[in-house]
Amino acid sequence: MIRISSQQIFNGGINRLQGINSNLVDTQQQISTGKKVNKPSDDPVAAARILKLDQELKRVDTYERNANLADNRLKQEESALASSVDIIQRVRELTVQAGSGSLSTNDRESISAELKERLSQLANITNSRDASGEYIFSGFQGQTPAFAKDGAGDWQYQGDEGQRVLEIDDGVTVPISDHGKGIFVDVAKAVSVTDTSDGGTGDAAGYVSGLEVVAPKDLRDAFSGRAPDDLVVSVTDNAGVLEVTVTDPRNGATIPTEPVNAVAGEEFEVAGMKMTVNDAQDGDTYTLGISDRQSVFGTIENLIDGLEGIAKGDDRGNAEYDALIAESLTNLDNAQEKIILKQTELGGRLNAVESTTAFLEDSGLYTKEIRSQLQDVDYAEAISNLSFQSFVLQAAQQSFAQVSRMSLFDRL
């Protein structure tokens, strides 16, 4: 026979009431928080999975912020490049206008004045800043303006050649900047002529006119792999005939011309280029720059200097002016093409950022859905449980109150 003391009855009743009340409190907490797992003990397996899902959502949020930053930076650069193309196009229109033979001195001065304004606008665009105040075309030197005037008043690049990248997903990085040197400075220059007579002092009696690339493929083939990419044009008096020879400065080899025996005053072709040496004397030499580079700023600055400094009227002045216009147009086209190629590259990066952002959004939604299934409470079920647990608690309290008043003395 088992004897049950009054103390055991009270302890058992209290434990039972505490257990029911604890369940009731848990259900109330679920309803108030909207979560059915508020502590690991509620469901250890679900709690572990929820923790991993929370970590995944934090990872997605971080990458989404990076992707948004990359998108903003790239769009700002794209806008700056589009504005640069517009300015260069206007400069090209002015250059074509300057090539008209009917312009007066006042007309040239007017064109030069507008070119100076356009040059200043281009400098302002290349010195654009992002939302954090850093210059977008300065490479890693974000606190330094990309372009500034030197002591001579010419625009020079001040940044470095660094390119910033940002991770927008696991193992996925995207460049978010481009240095100004690669876009605005290292621009292919038109074939140019430099007077290098008398050991480079440049005092030739004659001049080169009509320089034109007539066979670009022949020019590329002739200078493929050359270093430096230059040719030397020399004038020699041979029994009263001023002969023109073209040589490779690396080894002194003669480059064939057409006609074979080129002479001063007559047009000839060499390596896909045609030209004429005028008013030459024995010993005149010129260097043809084939693959030189010139910044778009330098192109516009040279154009302005030429409009203000070259005097037209004689054959030499007219040839120099015509060469300036032709070279400027080619250089502007090269600069515009380089910027457009960069815009195309930016478009590819923006597409990559956009597709990655869409993937991150889908991944975040899927992760939240799984977490919701594990964590969010079913209010209808929880409220039903709360009502039932309240009823059970009330019944237990009443039962315990009745039992606690029972005593053996009542039976005596």
From TrEMBL:
<comment type="similarity">
    <text>Belongs to the bacterial flagellin family.</text>
</comment>
<keyword id="KW-0282">Flagellum</keyword>
<keyword id="KW-0964">Secreted</keyword>
<dbReference type="GO" id="GO:0005198">
    <property type="term" value="F:structural molecule activity"/>
</dbReference>
<keyword id="KW-0975">Bacterial flagellum</keyword>
<dbReference type="InterPro" id="IPR013384">
    <property type="entry name" value="Flagell_FlgL"/>
</dbReference>
<protein>
    <submittedName>
        <fullName>Flagellar hook-associated protein 3 FlgL</fullName>
    </submittedName>
</protein>
<feature type="domain" description="Flagellin N-terminal">
    <location>
        <begin position="15"/>
        <end position="140"/>
    </location>
</feature>
<feature type="coiled-coil region">
    <location>
        <begin position="53"/>
        <end position="80"/>
    </location>
</feature>
<dbReference type="InterPro" id="IPR046358">
    <property type="entry name" value="Flagellin_C"/>
</dbReference>
<dbReference type="GO" id="GO:0009424">
    <property type="term" value="C:bacterial-type flagellum hook"/>
</dbReference>
<dbReference type="GO" id="GO:0071973">
    <property type="term" value="P:bacterial-type flagellum-dependent cell motility"/>
</dbReference>
<keyword id="KW-0966">Cell projection</keyword>
<dbReference type="Pfam" id="PF00669">
    <property type="entry name" value="Flagellin_N"/>
</dbReference>
<dbReference type="InterPro" id="IPR001029">
    <property type="entry name" value="Flagellin_N"/>
</dbReference>
<keyword id="KW-0175">Coiled coil</keyword>
<keyword id="KW-0969">Cilium</keyword>
<dbReference type="GO" id="GO:0005576">
    <property type="term" value="C:extracellular region"/>
</dbReference>
<feature type="domain" description="Flagellin C-terminal">
    <location>
        <begin position="330"/>
        <end position="407"/>
    </location>
</feature>
<dbReference type="Pfam" id="PF00700">
    <property type="entry name" value="Flagellin_C"/>
</dbReference>
<dbReference type="InterPro" id="IPR001492">
    <property type="entry name" value="Flagellin"/>
</dbReference>
